[in-house]
Amino acid sequence: MGVCLFSCNFLAIYSSEIFLPSGTVSVIFSMSAILNALNQWIFFRQRPDARVLGGGVLGVCGVGLLLGGNADLGKETLIGMGLALVGTTMFPLGNMVSKRLGRFDLGLLNTVFYGMVCGTLLMAGNTLIHGHDFMPPLTVRWLGGLIYLSVFGSVAGFLFYLALVQRIGADKAAYTTILSPVIALGASALWEGAHWSRPMLAGLLLILMGNVLAFARRRPAPQSVEVEQG
To answer: Who's near 82: CB < 8 A, 6+ residues apart?
Structure first.
């Protein structure tokens, strides 16, 4: 879990953004919702709900419309896409490990703690291998970002997410990753002056439709009533 959720997946995703725009990486990462459903089928013999898969497909298509654009398929683009796919594949695998650990009486806090310790050690080794310094810039902006990412983006975020995985399943929980680019675009529209084009509005509509399809409650089948003959 430390490898897949707390270290190497982040390393692959952030490295991919050296070669690709973050929006393109978000599109690729949103495929984790579909991969989660497929992994549950492979590892736990849980056939995916067609509505969840359909909602995931609609969501991915919607994000593609929101953040789409013709990418230059050069060497750097292919490297970036490969790294993004590696990170995207590792994230659902980490969810499967988390779900498997949930069957033991280990406790969510314990599993997240030890997973983060293992992930931290791996990233520390990567830092040493590349000759980086462990001393951070002692500025308010940098330390504030570190506190936010550590407390809210990592500890609290993963605790809530993994609790959601154990409660509603990894396939539905991972569907939240499809919504993150929409939030990013909304923030961009507010603070960066981004404008919503027709394809972007169509993409937003697809994502909302995917939400409805994935999470709408199915009506129970009517039960037949046998009439007792006198």
So the answer is: 16
- What is the DSSP secondary structure assignment for residue 227, as one 8-state letter? P
Is residue 36 packed enough to be buried (19+ CB in 10 Å), middle (13-18) or exposed (0-12)? buried
Could you tell me the pTM of the whole model? 0.71
Contact, 20 vs 77, CB < 8 A?
A: yes
Compare 46 and 187 and report the one with higher pLDDT: 46
Q: For residue 116, give Cα distances in angstroms to 15, 60, 124, 147, 230.
A: 20, 29, 12, 16, 69
Cα–Cα distance, 28 to 17 (Å, whole number) = 12
Q: Quote the CA–CA distance of 96 and 174 in Å, as a whole number.
A: 11
Q: What is the pLDDT of residues 35-84, one digit of tens each?
A: 888 888 888 888 877 877 787 788 778 777 766 654 455 788 788 888 98
Tell me the CA end-to-end span of the chain in Å, nearest whole number: 64
